[in-house]
Design goal:
Helices cover about 25% and strands about 35% of the residues. By secondary structure, the chain is of the alpha+beta class. The strands form 5 sheets. A 5-stranded antiparallel beta sheet has the order 4-1-6-7-8, with no helix packed on it. It has a 5-stranded antiparallel beta sheet with strand order 3-2-5-10-9, with no helix packed on it.
Length: about 350
Amino acid sequence: MLVNKNQTRYDFILTIISITCYLNYFIFYETACIKNHAKYIFLVICILMYPGVSMGNSRYIAKFKTQSSYCFLIVNDVHVLNTMNSSKGTISTAADITPMLENGENKIGFIFRPDDWGVNVSEYYCEIELVKTNTNNNAYEPIVGFRVTFSGGDKLSFDDKTTYSINLNKESSLYSISERTIQDMILLDNGVRANAYGYTTNVNISNIPQWAWTKASTQKIDNSLRAAIIKSYSDIIDNISHNEINKIKEKYAIAIKEGAVSTGMDEGIYFETIGINDAMVKGHILKNPDWNKFKLVGYANNRIFRLERYPTNKISPIEWEGTDDFYYSWYPYFSIIDGKLVLVR
């Protein structure tokens, strides 16, 4: 992991200053050496200087574009966007991926495979561009961008790697792209599983909030952790089945707070956007998941994790069904912070 030594030194200096401020404040307070209004002004200055409250004003936006392809945008191992439900034709989208990033080195990339749906196109491709924006002045800075293309048309096999090419934009000249083959990644329309190809690079990120999950301890993905996670899922499902929405909000407090920071929304409005309230009105929670169908999967060096239905898809155990084909699934992520299992996304 890359560390910004200058930022670390800067934070250390601010920490020493802030501690000195607090000590002086309490000394002044006890000895009445300064008037009340001056004491409070002094304390506010100290608080503002303390690096722990710095939220960072940079945001990172991933632009994602594909043509007739299965593509998955990957951020620190987490699947952020994909085209599994609409892989036909040209698709352009973008997402703020800041909540899944941390200050320092991060892994960015995508998984790609052409979609052979019976219509020949001139080329199949998947591309990503990562840009940095500033919430204070709307500054815009390209960070990295690359595009993978399959140009074999309908004449060559999608499994022939010699027909794939990768192109980098000018900002990407300092980055190296790693490639890997992922066996049986894609479930095709005919029920056959096919290989896909992964492309990743490491990018240095700076000046973003220090999210709670970045402070989590790395975990061993084993049966002990799986049992604890199943217990947490079961408790959440029980809360939902009893309409205990306040208990859900308490358990999801970290994610709600940080989601509001990331989006600029009020915490209550942000929680509404998740869809839980709507799902509780339109459908009924499935109370007894078959846990044997779910696999514990870790992300970001096993600092965040969740259960996923395996091997068919990544569906969560928290599912609602209702009339008129209503279906909804909630995909929370867990971490262990200070020895406690908590929801972080």
